From TrEMBL:
It comes from the Bacteria. The keyword S-adenosyl-L-methionine does not apply. GO terms for biological process: defense response to virus; maintenance of CRISPR repeat elements. Keywords: Antiviral defense. Signal peptide: none annotated. This is CRISPR-associated protein Cas5h. It comes from Thermosipho japonicus.
Length: 257
């Protein structure tokens, strides 16, 4: 199956958690699929949230909701964060005493990046096939209709390293998955000929990385986040069902969702 991938990077980021408390708005450690689809929409020039419309729909999501992607973080540990306090005197903030809302946000203050894999499915409609081809063309030529950013327009992002590739069905059941993967689709223990060791245990003195986080992966009918637990690790995992796992011609194993 054909696919393409590219890197997207920024100097800082803020992937706001919608369930954080009112005192400090916190960020996810990783970009998530709804945010990636939003970036695709910005590249293609599609509209986003428009609360003036009666149906309250999101144009980019309606056009891209059948696309599946894989997300490979280009860093191996949670990045440094800090809390920023700023005054907001626009929009709903005008209802605050004095017309100013003091907000606190936790932002990522290290350079961050991801490789995004976008496979082509024969089940795409004709419109979706055209959208796929246009997206690939624009990414290849480093062009976007709208500015792209990581969570806020202060954190401008850029994309590079476009690559056309092929992906094939994965045959092995025990592999290192190079991308984010839903925990429910893997087993948490890897068994060797000598022993069985836990996901959070170092094997034979080897240092490893394992990060688990609940991330959005879709919208529901009201355009609210649908979430699940994801894992990012450099350990071998047992795959429960090979359907969502693919191997690239660069010999990377990715999880497509």
């Amino acid at each position: 199956m054909k696919a393409f991938c590219f890197d997207i990077k920024a100097d800082m980021g803020f992937f706001k958690k919608n369930d954080s408390n009112a005192r400090v708005f916190t960020t996810y450690n990783f970009i998530h699929k709804p945010a990636v689809l939003g970036i695709f929409g910005a590249i293609l020039g599609y509209g986003g949230y428009d609360r003036d419309k009666k149906n309250n729909s999101i144009e980019y999501y309606e056009k891209l909701k059948n696309f599946k992607i894989a997300i490979k973080p280009l860093y191996r540990k949670p990045l440094k964060k800090t809390v920023v306090i700023f005054n907001n005197s626009s929009g709903l903030a005008s209802q605050e005493p004095g017309g100013v809302l003091q907000a606190k946000e936790q932002i990522i203050v290290e350079s961050l990046g991801y490789t995004i894999f976008v496979p082509f499915f024969e089940t795409f409609s004709e419109d979706e096939k055209e959208i796929y081809e246009k997206l690939e063309y624009m990414v290849k030529n480093k062009y976007a209709e709208y500015p792209i950013y990581f969570g806020k327009n202060e954190f401008l992002a850029y994309f590079e390293n476009y690559k056309s590739l092929n992906v094939e069905e994965l045959e092995r059941k025990e592999v290192v998955v190079n991308s984010l993967v839903k925990m429910k689709d893997v087993d948490f223990f890897v068994k060797t000929d000598e022993e069985e060791f836990g996901l959070f245990e170092d094997h034979k003195g080897e240092k490893s990385v394992t990060i688990i986080e609940e991330l959005p992966y879709d919208f529901d009918e009201n355009y609210m986040y649908v979430k699940d637990l994801f894992i990012f690790t450099d350990k071998e995992l047992k795959i429960k069902n090979n359907e969502s796992f693919w191997r690239t011609n660069d010999n990377e194993v990715i999880y497509v969702f």
